[in-house]
Fold each of these.
Amino acid sequence: MQTGFVRIGISGWRYSGWRGVFYPPKLAQSRELEFASRAVQSVEINGSHYSLQRASTWRAWHDATPDNFVFSVKGPRYLTHMLRFRDETATSALANFFASGVPGLGDKLGPFLWQFPPTFAFHAHAFERFLALLPKETTAAAAFAGQHDARVKEPWFEPPEKRRALRHAIEIRHPSFLDEGFVQLLRTYGAALVVSDSTAGWPYAEDLTADFVYLRLHGSETLYGGSYTDAAIEAWAERIECWAAGRPPGDARLITTRMPRRRTSHDVFCYFDNDQKVRAPFDARRLMQRLGVEPEHARG
């Protein structure tokens, strides 16, 4: 039976509390990504959410990780939390984001994560403008980057080596998104609805809207805290196996009863965000062991 590719990882990697616990004592901070990328299968880049990075930084992240490693990239909060894609300024800001050097990840570039705040409500017309703005493949992203302004200090000018599709995942935190129209928009544009597990009371849904599934596990006891129990790890593993095989779990929590186009498989990206008290990397490893998957450096 065909199944999709499963990648289990962590949200971010630079946390002082991890030093001497997950990271070996005296490991240089500059080598933390190198170490983390050999323990898990993928890493969510969080720094891109808070500020524009430099092209040299993106390339350094690429070079620090094993061949075939994959990053996901968190979109700028300047776009999702401040501008909220409301006007033409958003086009320039999105161009700056891509020109900052995202293409420097090369084939290690995985999905983009667009996280909207709890105060951001669903309005169909406005949200469709946002989805339509997102580049769907690398050459479109490169063309977009050419519209950057002076805020990009090291613009990335190298054209992509090959044309390939880009993936986008949407994380919602306002209950108004529990709307069939929202699910239909995601399916129309091929964007994934983030399955977001937390104690915060944010909307939770598992509708399949793209050719991949994006899962974020924010903590079992508090927001960003608490290790997942063995039973919880088993439950998530079973759901991931269903998604990878192209089907929803039997008890999936759905916004709409309208089923998507049937697929034989989905790729699955799962990130542990329970970074407080250093649980994320260890929970990620436990889930990897349950699923029988390995970091890239251990393959072959």
Note: The radius of gyration is 18 Å.
Amino acid sequence: MLTLLSRERFLQQEPMRNHTTFKIGGPADYLILPSSLEELTRVIEILKRYDVPHQVLGNGSNILVLDGGIRGGVIKFESAMAYMRREGKTITVGAGALLKDVAAFAADEELTGLEFACGIPGSVGGAVFMNAGAYEGETKDVVARVRAVTSDGKIVTYAGDALRFGYRKSIFQKTEEIIAEVDFVLRKGERKEILAKMEQLQVRRESRQPLEMPSAGSTFKRPTGHFAGTLIEETGLKGFSVGGAQISMKHAGFVVNKGDATAKDVLTLIEEVQKRVYNTKGVKLHPEVRIIGER
């Protein structure tokens, strides 16, 4: 692999706590940082040739990496895969770009439709993978096409219904293909109005979410007819802690890292919350955060 990548882009035994917003996680055997779509296809070919398992890490914002770390390779896109270009009402974006940066780019280009994403910390690839959403907007609303790399290193394109978007779901959770490039189709708008809406949403986010502490975003999916944070707060669990993991005092739908949390702390807390909410409210909570790695 070092014949293809420099030592700065092929790291061994790299702690995943340095690459997730939760600041939690054991080491990955290999952290691979490809700089282009062509390089990514070659990396996939090499990993397959030597039967090395691999997975993709976006911005690490919706992920809990377990304390035992990750066996095999972890592919992460950085600035070289964060390009953005406009053609008409379409913005083509590398999967490594941050969704909030794409929203800002769209605003500068006077294109509307991505305002909901201005505060979402994840990468474009992660947003498509999970159909990320906020404030009544979802990634599926603005995605037209996705180019991905198969396990054989081939490039395939998905569009329309083939993307199989649902609540926090996409086709890529089943195919395990690597999202590489996304086309967003937006609408013409007025820059002043777009920026005003983004500012309004950002103020709402900052006032309601514990952005000052490490977390993976919303911990639980929204149960039908309820809000997870409300159920947790009504069960008396706001501020409840296990080790360094805590239910946020600001928003009970978030588990935060007080500074020294382990993945085991987070999992134990999640399980306790699920049990108490079900016993008290009769509602099952399911994690929204993606859990990867070994215990």
Note: The chain has a mean pLDDT of 94.
Amino acid sequence: MNMASLFDLTGKTALVTGGSSGIGNAVATALAFAGARVILVARDSAALAQAADRLRAKNLQADHMTADLSQPETARDCTTEALKKYPEIDILVNAAGVNLRQSFTEVTPKAWNQQINLLLAAPFFMTQGLAPHMAKRKWGRIINLASLQSFRAFENSAPYGASKGGIVQLTRATAQAWSASGVTCNAMGPGFFPTNLTNAIFANPELAARRAMQTCAQRNGKLEDLYGCAVFLASNASTYVTGQTIMIDGGFTAC
């Protein structure tokens, strides 16, 4: 057997929400290097265009769609529009995110809805829109983004943590609904990586060092650390892996 072929995504199309920056962009980059055509989705059209241009400059296949996924209706509409342009979407990565970092008593209904909608409702409705089309072809991969907060609490992050706890169960529910049709669903659970959502941590060297010392690896993550797991979960290498949450956290949750 050619083992490399298990990880080859040539001919596949991947839709990546939150693909203009951070973890979403890192996952999109990994999938593109593995041969996939990636469609980046986010609300900032200028940032999207720049991200797609950076991938194309590396001779990778990239396109983009502008969409604000903070409303469930918009998330479902996004899949409808995507399928008009790209009739065969093989891989969905739900990576769009926001963390408003408010204290428990400061969270308003508007702030709660914004975070729950983007982090939990959008993955559900994006999957609802795309999974049936994957199932018809008997092949599909859905990758959700979990978090350290899927399993433990951090200060000033109750809505974020609630949504990330929900993502673990949504991943299981999606796997139960679609895996018999060849569509697997798994979640990646990053630890501390340098992204827009973690600026407050990495801007404070003392805090960043403290977080690093809480891992078995004794360091924080680099975005490249996500590449291998992303390609594994998006490829034929993970055909019999579904409903799982894989933590990429340097052992933070093991200590």
Note: The chain has one domain: 8-193+226-248.
Amino acid sequence: MERLNGAPPKEETGSLAVGVVARLEQEILNGIRKPGDRLDERQLAEQFNISRTPVREALQRLAASGLVVSRGRQGLQVSQLSLADLLDAFSVVAELEALACQQAARRMQSEQRARMQAAQAACAKAAEEEDVEAFYAANLVFHEAIALASHNAILQEELRRLTLKVSPYRRTTTYQPGRMHSSIPEHENVMNAIIRGDGATAAQQMRAHVTLLGEGLSDLLHFLRTSGSGSLIKDMG
């Protein structure tokens, strides 16, 4: 396709933008980019070795999804959640994951069951070795395996979108003392209920595992403040 003024064709720009979106989402999911981090169009173009046009389109797409926000003169930043929004986000994630458990209990296939069990074994190994990064990665796979086993594409897309928003906070909870170890029996309860086809119990256990309420919220806020991670929360003070 002919190029005008050296600009890439529209189709190529769109394809490159999709790639940039995927890479930035992965960096946010893995904690490389944190809430409040600035996203500079020029720097990103240099980092990804592409023109600024697809980068601009990618940032527009991320802004439309709410993962990126404009801060006026400060430019674009990875979104920060207020405390109220954080609670709301976790409550919605808890309900969606609970629904995924209900449907997975009826629809899970053998390869998905094997993936869930392998992820849980990896979580247990990481917790035993006090390997936070390995636990976080395996925990993501565990939850993803259940979502995939729901065979509900709409649910999976909504969970993926919200998971990106809460991932920095989920990652932070992993560093809380004792959190990895307490997650193991919680995962076991969810997993065993799904395997025996008890969707109601699996949903109840998952909801309790994900929701930030009571002592769980208090402990997270204390940890954010004392660990220097308070900047993850918008206007936390």
Note: The radius of gyration is 19 Å.
